[in-house]
Amino acid sequence: MKVTLLRAAAALTTLALGAAALPSVAQTARAAVPAAEAQAPAEAQWIDRATVVWKVEHTAATAEELSSADGGTLRLTPAPLTDAQKAAHPHLADRPAFSLDPRDRDKAATALRGPLAAVQRAADGRVLHRTGVQIPGVLDDLYAARARRARLGPVFHGGRPTLSVWAPTARSVSLDLDGRTVAMRRGARSGVWSVTGTSDWRDKPYRYRVRVWAPSVGRTVTNEVTDPYATALTADSARSLVTDLADPRLAPAGWAALKKPEAVPPRDARIQELHIRDFSIADRTSAHPGQYLAFTDQDSDGMRHLRRLARSGTSYVHLLPAFDFGTVPERRSDQARPGCDLAALPADSDQQQKCVAQTAARDGYNWGYDPLHYTVPEGSYASDPDGPARTREFRQMVQGLARAGLRTVMDVVYNHTVAAGQDGTSVLDRIVPGYYQRLLDDGSVATSTCCPGTAPEHAMMGKLVVDSLVTWAKQYKVDGFRFDLMGHHPKANILAVRKALDALTPAEDGVDGKSIILYGEGWNFGEAADDARFVQATQRHMAGTGIATFSDRARDAVRGGGPFDEDPRVQGFASGLFTDPNGSPANGTPDEQRARLLHAQDLIKVGLSGNLADYTFTDTGGRRVKGSEVDYNGSPAGYAAAPGDALAYADAHDNETLYDALAYKLPAPTPAADRARAQVLALATATLSQGPALSQAGTELLRSKSLDRNSYDSGDWFNAIHWACEDGSGFGRGLPPAADNQPKWPYAAPLLTNPAARPGCTEITGASGAYRDLLRIRTTEKAFSQATGEGVQDALSFPLSGTGETPGVITMRLGRLVVVFNATPSRQSQTVPALAGTPYALHPVQAHGSDATVKTSTYERATGTFTVPGRTVAVYAAEAAAR
């Protein structure tokens, strides 16, 4: 059953970050917390076996205690936190603390297995204050040292499985195996319950039966729950399966000997972000629409396009969540479909979105940012969700991508779960209530991520993250991971992932872990913001680690405005700010537009450097500045220590597609051909940057979602990629869904019926070819692949930057290359006196490429003048380098 969209999440994020600085996934609510359970506050925090933090005022006339139904009374004495405790719990550093009486400390393990309260009494015994107790810290102190070393889930030795689950607060745990009950044994020092079975347990369905105190409902419950470490599932995640991923029956032909395309350094990664269902659901040439197996259809239009991208330099396909998620019926027979003739409705009709919305809660579509089981492939993409097909077919997908010349990245979402408490889709919280989810001061579950947040700062949640990723790397040969809302993870947790992956070797594990790339959203917001609870894995903290973070700096400068602008026509560098104004008052006066445009050009220059903090150049104000001294909404624009720390992009699955954003922002009469050229120019600012770059699949084909800014649940009609140009780009498929777009309908409706805004085959194929040409230049010219900040400083310059810089034009010199980004609608000449006499020519790839317009670019050797058509990126090479 789908959960409903949490509308408030976007507004809260806007308040936290400022609209102009808004990140991508964080800004887009995708799934919500189920209806809140009645739960008493839990304002005391038991942080280790000897210490409780509780914001009450102790006096000589009061006494504090922990009251437990099982452990009796545990006496408390005021005691200051140590420096080590303050460092471990910075958000509690200034709170009153209490020490457990040494005589009562041996009661802790028993007390934790039942109702627990912190109580303050007056001298006469009256209760002055009473509250629940948060227990993650003490659980880690008591059990984590042993539990971290445990192998959880199904583990096979000699054909016999051992099943293990960490449940330290449970009164009992038994195994429901294929309808019969099997007792499990508890490890007193680890809190792990386990049982070893016989070989005939293989592939049997199972759940754990956990009897445990559940604070969210205030009673002891018996939960029948699937395994958080499940390796396989029945349909709709009803049961885990006792499955050995090393079973040869799960390996497709050729799996053991699979040869991957050669790994590239992370700084050179060129990544295509792709949703599995979007890829093939509308592809008439695919034999397996919407499935993992679509990537084995090597002659389909989609796979042919991916091969063309791979030959041009795309190195990775980044798959949106493909783990088991909780919002799609997995059997296709259970999936609803819109009951309207959508194609027959007008381009600006509100009926398409209305019809799609009626089945959205039961259809086969969701982005999948609602994790249910982290280490099992999603069943709705399999030919049969009930059993091993999803494992085998996920592996076949990886094989298919490898055969096309592409490595595989998974989008992983360990920062939240689809549900918490006693909800039927809550797994972790029904096994160890109050541990895996991050709790706020009152004991409620944090939801700043849009959904019930997890706490990777707790030892066993951190372990789950590491163990899960190692499994995907070893058992599924995944080549990279993209972390959703990585800033909600501790930096230490992400570095532990890196260390665990680095330890994988081809000889021992079948994969080279050091070649696996990592990147994520390093946004800083919510209850973890500003390192409130730990040092976060944010943009500034991950610099220098080799783990990249998405950079929103150049993205915003290129597109203009943000996804929550009341008027979506706010322009940027590629969308005509100042040079081709659209008449919206939101853009300000001409002088204001000019100033904003020139500052945007400085942000783009920092992006082209790889977002380096120390890269030095002359800004458009004539000042010599470092990247870190260029302002981005009050933050440093440059934060990277080396190329590879920042990932460039102009669009991703969040917010409007690049084409749709430009559709809003370019002047309404702008011809489709010019819109296509603006698209390629915007993509070029990321494609031709130092460091890794990502683009949304189909963006090079002018992909549209009919102006939908949040299509996570908008169904196939708005999301499907159309690989054949005669099927269109997706533009004009009706007004986008009201839930997130209705305020923009007055702007959207005239656009959707505007013939100038609807691209045809000429524009679609032209943009695709021009993008691939630029991609080929980026991946064959070594100057774009500087390994160090010093190398970038030596090779890269902006010779015309300063007070005389042309608004709307950036001229970049990189080694023996000169690149001119002309975002204006007219032909522009850029004279670089220092290059007079040096022989330059249009780069051979463009000179013999697909874009006829760029071929009209000229160069005057005598004066060093480069002349480039409007809305064009021209790459010139010194003739010695071009031969």
TrEMBL record:
Transmembrane segments: none annotated. Residues 729-877 form the Alpha-1,6-glucosidases pullulanase-type C-terminal domain. Residues 1-31 form the signal peptide. Keywords: Signal. Residues 152-230 form the Glycoside hydrolase family 13 N-terminal domain. GO terms for biological process: carbohydrate metabolic process. Coiled coil: none annotated. InterPro entries: GH (IPR017853), Glyco_hydro_13_N (IPR004193), Glyco_hydro_b (IPR013780), Ig-like_fold (IPR013783), Ig_E-set (IPR014756), Pullul_strch (IPR011839), Pullul_strch_C (IPR024561), Pullulanase_N2 (IPR040671). It holds the Pfam family Pullul_strch_C. Residues 42-141 form the Pullulanase N2 domain. It comes from the Bacteria. One of its GO terms (molecular function) is pullulanase activity. CDD domains: AmyAc_Pullulanase_LD-like (cd11341), E_set_Pullulanase (cd02860). SUPFAM superfamilies: (Trans)glycosidases, E set domains, Glycosyl hydrolase domain. Belongs to the glycosyl hydrolase 13 family. This is Pullulanase-type alpha-1,6-glucosidase. The lineage of its organism: Bacteria, Bacillati, Actinomycetota, Actinomycetes, Kitasatosporales.
